[in-house]
Task: structure prediction
Amino acid sequence: MIRRREFIAALGGAAGAWPLGVRAQQPAIPVIGFLGARSAARDANYVEAFRQGLSENGFIAGRNVQIEFRWANNAVDPVPALAAELVRRRVNLIVCAGNAAAALAAKAATATIPIVFSTGSDPVKAGLVTSLNRPGGNLTGVTTLIRELNAKRLGLLVDVVPKAATIAYLVNPAGTPDSDSQTADVQEAARAVGRELFVLNVDGERDIQESFATMMQHGTGALLVGAGIRSLGLVTALALRHGLPALYPVREFATIGGLMSYGASFSAMYHQVGIYAGRILKGANPADLPVMQPTKFEFVINLNTAKALGIIIPSGVLALADEVIE
Result:
């Protein structure tokens, strides 16, 4: 016969052990590794759009999903090590935001962890997926690249600076794996409107500074900024200093003093990445999720910069703008 004191002690021990057993049976909170090519400060608004996309599938950061951020801060060299670090962390999913280089590094680091990317490159030509409709493997995501986009940008620039016979094209091959094909698209568009295209490949700030000196020597009349260009402030400042009208691929350039920008909405893109991440966490196979292309584009004109450059924006072009900065 068990004594009353021994019975109570045994019962208390069992009660104390029960919550531990229950906790052991609870599913672990999934962890998303977020590999950002840019910086936390620069992408803060976009990360919020990503979180909203996640929430549409019932995942709230800090509640039922954890996000571990790794930022490359606009550098290419640290990206492979950051990707490998997330793989060692055994995250449930990796988000690669900002460029194809981050996604390629993650792909090289793991063939099993699902990867959702956002890129301005062609994912097929960059080697990320086998096709847009059926990605295959462990990657899917969003691409902002539409072939007609470069022709549209060049057309807008020509409309604003019709006397520019030579247009410089600034591109960063290190951050853009399919830069050759993108450059070929721009060259084709330039020939179609009877303009000479002067291509300049750059990477760091020294390259950018030297490129502007070269543009001036070459008699450049306008500048088209391509994918993968870092150092926003430096590029826009140099364009203003040299009196060079420029069109950029991302609205941030226009908001800090660039003349114009035309491109896909980054907020919409990151939102879609969040939706895909949530679907995969709920069991979807990335191989079956088609790579999405943008449906929302933003054309931003900075009238303060136009005035500083002595440029009058045609009324027809102004009417096309989604946002005019005055």
In short: Residues 1-26 have pLDDT under 50 and may be disordered. The chain has twelve helices and twelve strands.
